[in-house]
Amino acid sequence: MYTIIGTVTAHPETREELAALLQAQVAPTRAEAGCINYDLHVDAADPCVFVFYENWTDRAALDRHLAAPHLQPLFSQLDRLLAHPVDIRPLTMLSEWGV
Fold first, then answer.
1. What residues contact 90, with CB distance under 8 A and at least 6 apart?
2. Partner residues linked to 8 by β-bridges
3. What is the pTM of this model?
4. Which of 6, 43, 50, 57 sits between 20 and 30 A of 86, alpha carbons compared?
5. 98: number of Cβ within 10 Å
6. What's the CA gap between 27 and 49, in Å, rounded?
7. Is residue 18 within a helix (H) or strand (E), and if so which, with residue range?
């Protein structure tokens, strides 16, 4: 399994637009081969910060996801929408998978 936490921070004036684009990615991404889970969160203290918690069967599945056509409307606008570059943090799970 390959786990990442991805964090994106919107400019205050692009927050709503970014939120809509991010939410539109959830259903098609969850349908992708290799996606175990793909969960979108917003920071409770800062509504401009969005966090994805993602589990993939392997790194190759994540790489295929990052090249998926449904991400292009988002990726093509990141420079305009984001206050900071995307932060992708790979994780290694130490515990057993919980249900």
1. 2, 3, 4
2. 50
3. 0.92
4. 57
5. 5
6. 20
7. helix 15-30
- pLDDT digit string (tens) for 9-66? 999 999 999 999 999 999 999 999 999 999 999 999 999 999 999 999 999 999 999 9
Identify how many contiguous H helices and E strands the chain contains and give both numbers: 4, 4
Q: Which residue has the tokens 């969005």?
A: 50
Whether 6 and 86 have beta carbons less than 8 Å apart is answered as yes
Chain centre to alpha carbon of residue 97: 20
Q: Are 43 and 51 in contact (CB under 8 A)?
A: yes
Q: Which two tokens stand for residue 40?
A: 């979108």
Cα 29 from Cα 81, distance rounded (Å):
21
